[in-house]
Structures are given as C-alpha cells and as structure tokens.
Amino acid sequence: METSTARSIVRARIGAGLAVTILLLPFGGYGLAQTGAVPEGAPVALVPLSGIVGFILLTALCEERAPFQHSSTRLTANTLTGERSVDLNRIATVRLVTTFSYGSVYRTLVVRDAHGVRLGITSERSRRKVRRAVEKADSNAARGVPGPRMSRAARAHLGLAPGQGLAVHTVLAFLLLTAPGSLYVAVVLRLGGQ
C-alpha cells in the first residue's frame, strides 16, 4: 500500500474518532456531573451542539471538495481529512448515503477501493467516472472477474437500475436518521434529568 494511501486511511480514522467523541460528549458530561466536577445541567446543554456537529461531521468527512483530479484509473479529491484518491479499477463497494436538510435531499455515493480508501462522490463529473468504472467492472464480471458490491440504491442513483430502489432507500434513510437522533436526545435528556 502506498504511503499516501495509508496516511489517508489514518486521517480518515482520526476524523471519524473525533466525530464519535463529539457525539459522546454529553455522556461524559453526565459522568462528570455525577462526580460533582461539572454542573448537573452540563450534559443537557451539550446535546444540541454535540449532536448536530457530530452527525454532520460523520457524514461530511469523506465528501469530495474541490479541487478534483480525474484520470482514467483514479479519482482524487480533497476532503475534510485531506486528499483521497480512489482506484477506479479496484472498486470494492459503492453505497448511497442520503441526508436531509431544510426540506432538501442530499445524496453522496461512498466509493471504497480495494486499498480501503473511501471517497464520497457528490459532483456530476465524478458520478460519471464511477458509473463508467462500474459498467466496466460489470462487463468484466461476465467473464468471471468479481465486481464491486453495490447497493440497489447506488445502482439506481447511477442510472444502472430502475429508480424504485431509490424511493425505498430515501424513506429508510429518513427513518434511520430520525429514530437514532431522537433516541440520542431522549437518552441524554433522561440522564441529565436524574
């Protein structure tokens, strides 16, 4: 594995660890409140800030940002954790992540290659590159070469399958975002109220 690839993976893991730490701050605040080190309302005060920042950070860590570099075999872009480069000839998985904000739906294709590098694809040009790479992998799969694992929603988003999987995915994504978020707030408020 290249040194830059290894560094990219390490930076991504550090970023994800930071996001999870931010999400767990209210629980740590609860523990400190029990010992008397901080006021009892501290965990409740941390909920809005840590919940919003943590969830946004988790979803945005691997998203591509300008400048982009495209070649026939690589897709390279800056992310919050630095530059990442995905090998389009060795795509391992493609999945679709859907988030919501102010009545709008945002979709990110998360592409992971055989080296473990993940890149969130948001631009139309990058989507076209991934689509061509997946079509090439599908044609190679007909000859017995294993292709990437893809969710139905990712295939539909790339236009490689009927759009029905996209509607179901959107409803499930909404439920999977709201239910844990509500549970998170309820647990922290419950702990803060004791």
How is the topology of this model organized?
Blueprint: H1 3-35, H2 42-60, E1 65-70, E2 74-79, E3 82-87, E4 91-101, E5 104-113, E6 118-121, H3 124-141, E7 149-150, H4 152-157, H5 164-193
Parallel strand pairs: 4-7
Antiparallel strand pairs: 1-2, 2-3, 4-5, 5-6
Helix pairs in contact: 1-2, 2-5
Task: Output the keywords.
alpha+beta, 5 helices, 194 residues, four-stranded mixed β-sheet, 7 strands
Largest sheet: 4 strands, mixed
Which structural class best describes the helix and strand composition?
Answer: alpha+beta
The proportion of strand residues reads 15-25%
- Specify the helix fraction band: 40-55%
Written as H for each helix and E for each strand, in order along the chain, the element string is HHEEEEEEHEHH
- Can you count the beta strands? 7
What overall form do the CA principal axes indicate?
elongated
Question: What would your notes on this structure say?
Answer:
With 194 residues, this protein is of the alpha+beta class. The protein has helices spanning 3-35, 42-60, 124-141, 152-157, 164-193, and strands spanning 65-70, 74-79, 82-87, 91-101, 104-113, 118-121, 149-150. The protein has a 4-stranded mixed beta sheet. The protein has a 3-stranded antiparallel beta sheet with strand order 1-2-3. A hairpin with a 4-residue loop joins strand 5 and strand 6. The chain is elongated. It starts with a helix and ends with a helix.
